[in-house]
Every structure is written in structure tokens, then in C-alpha cells.
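Allow me, if you will, to draw on your knowledge of protein folds for a short while. I have a record of one protein: its chain in single-letter code and its fold written as C-alpha cells. I remain grateful for any guidance, and I place the record below:
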Amino acid sequence: MELREMQAFVAVAEEGSVSAAARRLHLSQPALSQTISALERELGVELLVRSSTGVTITEAGLTLLAEARAVLARHDQALAAVARHTATGGGVLRIGIPLELAPDLLTGPLADLAEAYPDTRVQAYHLSTAAQVAALRADELDVGLVREHPVGPDLDAVQIAEERLGVLLSTDHAAKVVGPGGIHLDALAGLDWVGFPRSGSPAWYDELTAILRSHGLDLGPPAPEGQELIAPVKFAAVSTGHAFALAPPGWPHPIPDGITWSPLVGHPLVRRTWAAWKAESHRRDLGHLIVALGQSAPM
């Protein structure tokens, strides 16, 4: 008896019909029926009673169902155990993390990963999007959380977060421009944008600055290369009253007195985050984390 025959029988028994089991297994109904019939001939017993409404499992079928489930479960356990020894990185999952990651984006998925793969250790690296993409291609990262979809067939990616950015202003200036629904983007004309270097995330930078310019904003001097747009940098610039900075709702940094966060009317600036990984990767723990990120991400 082969594993595929046991998998086919278990699916038919659990679904209660050959047609439903065929859809579950992505097989044609005739092929699945032939597999079950061949299994019955091989064992010399009737496992299922067919009718127009589905199938009914026999006593012999109930016995096989219990044994087949146990064998298949043990098979999955064996594969998982071996995967821990063959996974790239020897049980260490290296994750690239950008600035201003949504607070709850990783907490749940990493806890889920620890439960499913207790032998996997996680190492986190704070890197720009461009640095993460380069590290992925150099096999120095296993997954990157990046601000733009990577280009090329060697990397796969899935969007895991979407944030509608608001604006940080001095409280005095905000009082002059804020309305019932927030602040119109063009009301920021005359202020400098506290931005990040283009080299850190070229596609996101180009998208963002194109929207700002289309609303009549003068972006001011470009950010110095290597400058990280951390909270103190934003606060220092905004507090002068001559600049604005962008930040998502629920920003985890305490906002000091004299500075106000407001939403932008119409939500013209949307920041997206993708999980990216090498297309050739077959790590099960990595796949588990990607699925968990996609299921729990705030969107």
C-alpha cells in the first residue's frame, strides 16, 4: 500500500464523496475512483459502499481509516524532523526589518513560528529596503520586510501590510491647517519634508515624492546619505515649525508636547510592506512564517 493510496482513501472517507475528495486532492474523479478500487482489490475487502448520494465507510474501511491517519501523521512528523537538519541556515531564520514596522506585525507570527518550529532561532537585522534586497540575493537574509515589491524572477514577495500615512507638524502650525477630516496635503506647501535618502528604497521614494510634488510641495534639501529617519530626527525638524514629517496612525513613539499628528484628507499616501524571499527557497519554517504574516497583518 502506497502513501498516495492512503491519502486518497482518507480524503474520500472524510469528505463523504469521491467528487469532493477529488477537488480536495486536485485530481480527476475517475482517477481517484480507480485508485480506491485498486486499493480494495489489493486488500481484498470492500472499504466503501457507493451510492448516488456519496459513500458510506464499511467496518473494514473504519479500521483502515484509523491506521492510515496514524501512518500519514507519522510521515509528516518525519519530514518535519528531517527538514530541521536540511533547512538553509542550520535552524537560524534571518529576518530583515525596516524602520517604523507596524507594532503587531511580527509579534503573533513569530510566536506561532516558535510553537510550530521550536528549534528555529530568529535573528533580526535592521536594514533599508535596498540593503535587504541585496542581502537576500547574497544569501545573507532568509526573508526581508521591504517597502517595495522586488523586481526579478529570483525573489518572491507577498504584501503583508498597508498603512495610511498621516503628518507630524508643530502644534502651532497644525492649528492653522487642520480641518474636520484632517489636513489637506497641499496645505503643507511652504514646509520642508523630513525625508529619507532615495538610495534606501528607490521605488517607494519616487512614488512618494511624485505625490508630494503633484500637490505643490517643495521637498527641500535631500536627506544625507546614510541618515536613518528615526523618531528624534523627525521631532527635531518638525519642532522648528518649518518642516513636516510622515508617520502612520498608531505610531509607537510617544509624541512630545508641541508636536501633533493628524491624518491626511483622502489618504493620498499609502505605505506598503512586502515579505520577500528567494524564489528557490524550500524552508518549511520560512513558509510557515510567510503564511502567518499574510494572515495576521494589519491592512
User: Anything to note?
Assistant: The first strand starts at residue 48 and ends at 51. Confidence is low (pLDDT under 50) at residues 86-90. The radius of gyration is 27 Å.
